[in-house]
């Protein structure tokens, strides 16, 4: 993959395998996106882990909790069909749930936002900090732990747990997806006569057979050379655009001796482009990736230059044209990228990646998908010369085999088309006797490959048809594959295949947990008609019920599994629809785990969903769809683009958000309980009817298991399992007696009006002056729209009314303390306590299931997390149907009436014990763990709690550790949303004002001292060795830094010294004639955010230098990054350099990184470097400023007594502070980073067959004799796509 480097200020150390391009998420298999927005709190159908948004230098708390990854089909303006159905429905009372009957259709003026997982680095490179699998399995807890509060099933994954190919989005007009539609013979007809006797069958049938409307603003076209293009005007972010060039070639097109060559070309073409380099400094960011079927080059750019109003789109198009069609295959560049790819290959070869590969190999054993992983084969990569690479490029890289996407702030479509023609029209024609083939050359696949042109292009469409006919008979000099064979699949359809494959077992020493995946594979059904949309809706309801049943019912006790997930989703990349049942468990419980999962699938298949479940999930889907439809103008260009690419690849009609909602409302009225259960049962037959002659055979059953397991009182013993035992476990779930699901009473409210009245009488809530110095009870800032309040119980509240996300809101509670408040007698108490609260999920007299369904009904998404210095609880809600009031009720109940359950505590403690024991099985985690212990003087608050510490904890001790922090002015609540002043202040008084002021606890928490280890120390340079079949290496380099506000661990206030320097400089340079600049510089140096601003800019500069030096010039690594962890409350910080390499190069890579860190004095920062850093950070700020979650980050600590320097100026003046920073300022910040040999810590990790045997000595010694055993799931979300090239 290829990208420009960037950095973000993150907490702790990020392990490399969790960093991915956000495009990964769009490219992975996801539910058919048909504007059935997945209500984030309610629909665990596709488990969704929300990525965090990187904070700008001024802000640490910034997690963008984006709610579900909606299923959406969006787009076109002709709604006659929808209106027709509404007329039809007036003739008969609908069988739809009552909630639908009362829902009003959303007008065209209302808008929808698609919540697509966002990249945690706004540079959109794969090394941004996106975590596509559970955080606990990808990054060490002490680096960035998030405990999901299960009140709302926050841990939804959009793509399921199965493997995804190596780093890429799915593109439109997927050549290999031509055969993904179900054969006509397999399409089932519905008997609508019996279902809707009051309607004329022909009329309803006519409606359901009607094609869905298509996007009215999406412009499609095709040049004479065959290049297809799509243009979509989109105003978010303003003055920016996305340009993606997708070439329809990937690893599947490689011959046996070319495995990895498509990825190699991506690297060489992208990084060898001089025209792309010219965009550097303009604010543009670029990247590239390769998957099975596609190679995509993309550029995110301003629409014009900053100073001169020059249109940048032509320069962007010129760069893409050079990259895709005119690359220079210089031998020097080929050798550079060969080294980088070989390093990438070793870096990504984690156990998670190997598990992913195993799953793909068995799922697609019958075709090339199982053998053509985009990263390629090492022995072949080492051999190719420039000639070999050039020939592959000539074979596949031509305009007719590519699609250009432009989405952004474009006002003149005709001008954009002219710019496309000016740049690309002659490309591909230079050496040909005629124009290359266009749509007709794709033969049987033409209708799928070539997009339909919109009505606005009728003239050009007609011209193309006549031109194509003339050109079709002409001969090209280049040999081109006009028609490529589709991938052949063995479908899991009744009677389609008879060979039963036994369960496959992948056993490895680095695995710790048991997991099994049962796959069913069928052709993709294109969503093109109202019937298709209706079927998707019914499947969503059915499968959501199953997921909720399993994960709610069994979480109320100690289940035999760690997780059970069912994913039913389309993959344009793999050319199929795959249903996956994934079960993870402790090895000792694996048989019961399978049994329970199969049993629950059977129960749902046999008895179906209940009327209550149908009503509940239908209502939630429609309400969320309406809510999202109101936010259409807030969808970012890249999210719109990724959605269009994926939809086109799958053959779905692309609608805009409003149309999608109206179509969904239309089909909802035709849905019946019987049909939902019938269509849902078909999805589950491969499990529920396993072994029956009429049942479809699973495409594959794959178990991934450890070699050894920990047995209480014995220690490590060999783990044995056979295919026969797996089948027996599955069959045991098929014969277990089952009963129908009982209806569950769902509360409409958690606090009744009578209870609220009593609370108000008892507590008498009111607003009081913000401080003794400020007599007013409400402080409003007109420029930012921020209001500050303080309640009589001491809780400070900040809110901002924002129209950015229509009728939506977010709220965050921040509690000072976190893990730093853990005493020597309660190590791990806070982190285990937060997890216990998360596992329990009960409040007051309400069960976990009731609370979760309360969240489902009100579309509330809630998460709870703990860090080194804070506990935070975050809510996302809709303002429809009292959603905000419901969120406030839930917050009140958590603060006042949380129920602490013993078995939830046992699960939480087991989780962290298991995670600790899994550290030695991860090279990255064990290396980082050792480094942090050395640097932080063995302070357990910054690493995982040890088995000994965990054994010392009790339910009461963890409860006290958490709840004693929830005290009056130690808490701060911030809210951002589209609400009225009266609404929000009423909720604040009613539900926050009635929280008790104190709880027999001191509001000020004294921390045990935090110290860096005294240096010099013999622990400053360490190594970790890990036994593994494959060689890999990584390293971390870290050292002290000040916190965000300039305080250092030795108690010094560096901001004061900086202010003194500024005064001295003023006297010295007053007569230089640049008074304005000096005023700005003086203001920055006296501003509380001086170090937050300057250290953030410094991180950008260092990251750029690390890339150009260690990676590009020296070829010692594929991935290197510099990150800062700047605390707010704690008076310290640190920096971390992460580098991956090979065992033979890792020591040199570490030395090179140290040289870059220390070389800023000898190699001075240039004005160009500083300007690029400013543009990068300011663009991130501008891109996110319309996000409610971003504003939550800006509001954080505004009134926190533990962060006294944070004030409104830190928000209002953020942009001007970045602009004011000078090179001298950056060096003042650099002086506070301890990079000398005595202050710097490093740890090198090496894995391989010959690596040392003493890797885990300290860990094993510490846990010897421990009687608790458990497992942490190894995350499976690693894509088998390529990483970013840069």
Key words describing this protein structure:
single chain, 1286 residues, alpha+beta, 7-stranded mixed beta sheet, 43 helices, globular
Description:
The chain has 1286 residues and is of the alpha+beta class. The protein is built from 43 helices and 28 strands. α18 (530-553) crosses α20 (611-629) and α19 crosses α24 (723-735). The chain is globular, with a radius of gyration of 29 Å. The chain starts with a strand and ends in a 5-residue tail after the last strand. Mean pLDDT is 79; it is low at 2-12, 14-196, 432-483, 1063-1073 and 1254-1281.
What general outline do the C-alpha atoms trace? globular
**Major beta sheet, specifics?**
7 strands, mixed
Mean pLDDT over the full residue set: 79
Strand order of the largest sheet: 1-6-7-5-8-4-3
* Structural class computed from helices and strand pairing: alpha+beta
The fraction of residues in strands falls at 5-15%
In helices, the fraction of residues equals 25-40%
Number of helices: 43
DSSP strand count: 28
Radius of gyration, whole Å? 29 Å
Distance between the termini: 7 Å
Q: Detail the poorly predicted runs.
A: 2-12, 14-196, 432-483, 1063-1073, 1254-1281
């Amino acid at each position: 993959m290829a990208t420009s480097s960037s950095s973000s200020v993150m907490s702790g150390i990020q392990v490399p395998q969790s960093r991915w391009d956000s495009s990964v998420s769009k490219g992975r298999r996801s539910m058919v996106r048909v504007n059935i927005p997945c209500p984030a709190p309610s629909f665990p159908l596709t488990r969704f882990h929300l990525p965090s948004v990187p904070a700008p230098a001024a802000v640490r708390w910034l997690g963008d909790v984006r709610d579900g990854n909606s299923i959406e089909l969006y787009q076109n303006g002709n709604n006659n069909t929808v209106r027709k159905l509404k007329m039809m429905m007036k003739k008969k009372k609908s069988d739809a749930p009552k909630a639908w009957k009362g829902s009003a259709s959303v007008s065209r003026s209302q808008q929808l936002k698609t919540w697509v997982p966002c990249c945690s680095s706004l540079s959109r490179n794969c090394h941004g900090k996106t975590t596509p699998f559970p955080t606990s399995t990808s990054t060490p807890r002490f680096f960035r732990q998030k405990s999901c509060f299960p009140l709302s099933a926050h841990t939804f994954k959009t793509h399921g747990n199965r493997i995804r190919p190596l780093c890429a989005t799915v593109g439109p007009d997927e050549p290999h997806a031509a055969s993904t539609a179900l054969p006509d013979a397999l399409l089932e007809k519905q008997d609508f006569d019996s279902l809707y006797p009051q309607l004329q069958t022909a009329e309803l049938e006519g409606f359901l057979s009607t094609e869905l409307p298509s996007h009215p603003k999406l412009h499609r076209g095709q040049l004479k050379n065959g290049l297809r293009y799509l243009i979509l005007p989109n105003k978010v972010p303003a003055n920016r655009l996305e340009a993606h060039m997708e070439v329809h070639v990937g690893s599947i097109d490689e011959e046996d001796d070319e495995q990895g060559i498509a990825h190699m070309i991506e690297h060489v073409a992208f990084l060898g482009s001089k025209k792309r380099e010219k965009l550097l400094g303009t604010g543009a960011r670029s990247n590239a990736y390769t998957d099975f079927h596609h190679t995509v080059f993309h550029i995110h750019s301003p629409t014009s230059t900053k100073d001169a109003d020059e249109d940048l789109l032509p320069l962007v198009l010129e760069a893409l044209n050079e990259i895709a069609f005119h690359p220079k295959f210089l031998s020097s560049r080929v050798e550079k990228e060969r080294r980088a790819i070989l390093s990438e290959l070793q870096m990504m070869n984690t156990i998670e990646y190997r598990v992913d590969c195993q799953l793909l190999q068995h799922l697609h054993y019958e075709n090339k998908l199982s053998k053509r992983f985009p990263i390629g084969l090492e022995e072949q990569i080492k051999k190719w010369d420039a000639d070999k690479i050039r020939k592959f490029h000539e074979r596949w890289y031509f305009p007719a085999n590519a699609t250009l996407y432009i989405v952004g702030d474009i006002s003149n479509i005709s001008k954009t088309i002219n710019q496309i023609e000016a740049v690309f029209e002659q490309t591909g024609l230079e050496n040909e006797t005629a124009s290359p083939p266009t749509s007709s050359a794709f033969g049987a696949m033409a209708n799928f490959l070539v997009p339909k042109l919109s009505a606005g292009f009728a003239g050009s469409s007609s011209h193309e048809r006549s031109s194509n006919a003339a050109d079709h008979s002409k001969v090209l000099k280049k040999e081109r594959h006009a028609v490529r064979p589709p991938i052949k699949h063995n479908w899991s359809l009744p009677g389609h295949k008879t060979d039963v494959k036994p369960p496959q077992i992948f056993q490895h020493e680095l695995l710790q947990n048991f997991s099994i995946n049962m796959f069913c594979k069928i052709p993709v059904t294109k969503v093109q008609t109202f019937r298709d949309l209706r079927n998707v809706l019914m499947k969503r309801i059915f499968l959501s019920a199953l997921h909720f049943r399993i994960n709610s019912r069994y979480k109320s006790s100690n289940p035999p599994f760690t997780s059970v997930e069912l994913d039913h989703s389309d993959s344009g990349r793999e050319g199929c629809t795959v249903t996956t049942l994934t079960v993870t468990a402790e090895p000792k419980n694996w048989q019961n785990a399978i049994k329970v999962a199969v049993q629950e699938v059977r129960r749902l298949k046999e008895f179906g969903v209940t009327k209550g479940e149908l009503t509940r999930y239908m209502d939630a889907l429609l309400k969320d769809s309406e809510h999202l439809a109101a936010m259409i103008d807030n969808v970012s260009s890249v999210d719109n683009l990724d959605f269009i690419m994926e939809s086109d690849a799958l053959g779905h009609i692309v609608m805009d958000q409003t149309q999608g909602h109206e179509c969904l409302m239309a089909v909802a009225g035709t849905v019946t309980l019987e049909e939902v259960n019938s269509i849902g049962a078909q999805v589950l037959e491969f499990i529920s009817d396993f072994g029956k002659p009429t049942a479809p055979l699973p495409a594959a059953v794959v178990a991934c298991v450890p070699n050894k397991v920990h047995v209480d009182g014995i220690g490590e013993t060999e783990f044995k399992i056979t295919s026969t035992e797996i089948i027996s476990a599955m069959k045991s779930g098929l014969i277990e007696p089952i009963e129908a699901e009982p209806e569950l009473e769902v509360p409409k409210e958690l606090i009744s009006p009578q209870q609220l009245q009593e609370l108000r009488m008892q507590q008498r809530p009111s607003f009081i002056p913000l401080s003794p110095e400020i007599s007013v009870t409400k402080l409003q800032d007109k420029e930012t729209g921020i209001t500050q309040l303080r309640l009589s119980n001491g809780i400070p509240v900040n809110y901002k009314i924002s129209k950015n996300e229509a009728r939506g809101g977010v709220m965050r509670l921040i509690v000072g303390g976190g893990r730093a408040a853990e005493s020597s007698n309660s190590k791990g108490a806070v982190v285990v306590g937060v997890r216990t609260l998360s596992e329990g999920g009960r409040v007051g007299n309400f069960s976990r299931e009731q609370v979760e369904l309360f969240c489902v009904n009100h579309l509330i998404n809630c998460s709870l997390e703990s860090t080194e210095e804070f506990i935070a609880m975050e809510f996302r809600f809709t303002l429809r149907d009292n959603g905000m009031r419901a969120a406030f009720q839930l917050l009140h109940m958590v603060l006042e009436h949380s129920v602490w359950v013993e078995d939830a505590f046992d699960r939480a403690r087991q989780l962290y014990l298991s995670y600790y024991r899994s550290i030695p099985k991860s090279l990255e985690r064990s290396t980082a763990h050792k480094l942090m212990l050395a640097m932080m003087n063995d302070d357990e608050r910054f690493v995982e709690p040890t088995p000994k510490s965990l054994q010392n904890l009790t339910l009461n001790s963890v409860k006290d550790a958490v709840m004693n922090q929830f005290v009056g002015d130690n808490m701060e609540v911030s809210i951002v949303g589209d609400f009225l002043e009266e609404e929000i202040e009423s909720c604040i008084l009613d539900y926050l004002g009635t929280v008790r002021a104190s709880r027999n606890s001191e509001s000020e928490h004294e921390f045990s001292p935090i110290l860096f280890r005294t240096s010099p120390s013999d622990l400053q340079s360490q190594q970790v060795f890990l036994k593994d079949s494959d060689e890999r290496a990584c390293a971390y380099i870290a050292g002290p830094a000040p916190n965000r506000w300039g305080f250092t661990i030795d108690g010094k206030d560096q901001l004061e010294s900086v202010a003194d320097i500024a005064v001295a400089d003023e006297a010295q340079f007053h007569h230089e004639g640049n008074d304005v600049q000096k005023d700005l510089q003086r203001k920055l140096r006296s501003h509380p955010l001086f170090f937050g601003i300057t250290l953030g800019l410094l991180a950008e500069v260092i990251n750029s230098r690390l890339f150009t030096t260690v990676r590009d010039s020296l070829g010692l690594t594929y991935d290197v990054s510099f990150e800062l962890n700047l605390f707010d409350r704690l008076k310290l910080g640190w920096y971390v350099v992460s580098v991956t390499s090979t065992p033979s190069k890792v020591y040199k890579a570490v030395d090179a990184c140290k040289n870059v860190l220390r070389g800023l004095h000898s190699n001075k920062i240039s004005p160009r470097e500083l300007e690029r850093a400013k543009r990068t950070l300011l663009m991130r700020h501008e891109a996110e400023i319309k996000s409610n979650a971003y504003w939550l980050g800006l509001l954080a600590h505004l009134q926190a007594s533990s962060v006294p320097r944070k004030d409104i100026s830190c928000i209002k003046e953020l942009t001007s502070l970045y602009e004011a920073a000078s090179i001298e300022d950056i060096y003042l910040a650099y002086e506070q980073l301890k990079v000398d040999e005595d202050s710097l810590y490093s740890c090198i990790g090496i894995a391989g067959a010959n690596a040392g045997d003493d890797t885990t000595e300290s860990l094993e010694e510490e846990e010897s004799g421990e009687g608790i055993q458990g497992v942490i799931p190894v995350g499976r979300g690693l894509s088998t796509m390529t990483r970013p090239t840069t």
